[in-house]
Design a protein that fits this description.
By secondary structure, the protein is an alpha+beta fold. It contains 5 helices and 3 strands, in the order H-H-E-H-H-E-E-H. The protein has a 3-stranded antiparallel sheet. A hairpin with a 2-residue loop joins strand 2 and strand 3. The protein starts with 10 loop residues before the first helix and ends in an 11-residue tail after the last helix.
């Protein structure tokens, strides 16, 4: 979808699409899983855990940070990242709202 066509869709649709684009990479899912499990992380740990180069990990972290899903603090040369709990809750609610609105049709009404 071209950026000029985003006006055809609601703010909610555009926001969900933006979030989905960021989440649509297995490395980012792996990073999220690790951060959720660890509940905090030093960037270097991700290189060992995920197995990608530091520059690649940093790029994925920037994407996750761009939607507010993670937050980080700098302590000298170490950067610690963790899940932003309030944003995670917002994103979960947005997707729940989308998927919870589905009511399965009866078997006779489905293709």
């Amino acid at each position: 979808m071209g950026a000029t066509q985003s006006h055809l869709f609601s703010d909610e649709q555009n926001e969900l699409a933006r979030i989905a684009r960021v989440l649509a990479h297995p490395a980012r899912i792996a990073i999220l899983q690790y951060l959720i499990k660890a509940n905090a992380c030093i960037n270097g740990d991700l290189v060992q855990e995920i197995g990608l180069a530091q520059a690649t990990i940093s790029q994925h972290l920037r994407e996750l940070k761009s939607i507010g899903l993670i937050q980080g603090t700098i302590d000298g040369v170490k950067v610690s990242y963790c899940i932003n709990p309030s944003r995670l809750s917002e994103i979960k609610k947005q997707f729940d709202h989308l998927f919870d609105s589905f009511t399965p049709p009866s078997i006779d009404d489905c293709c």
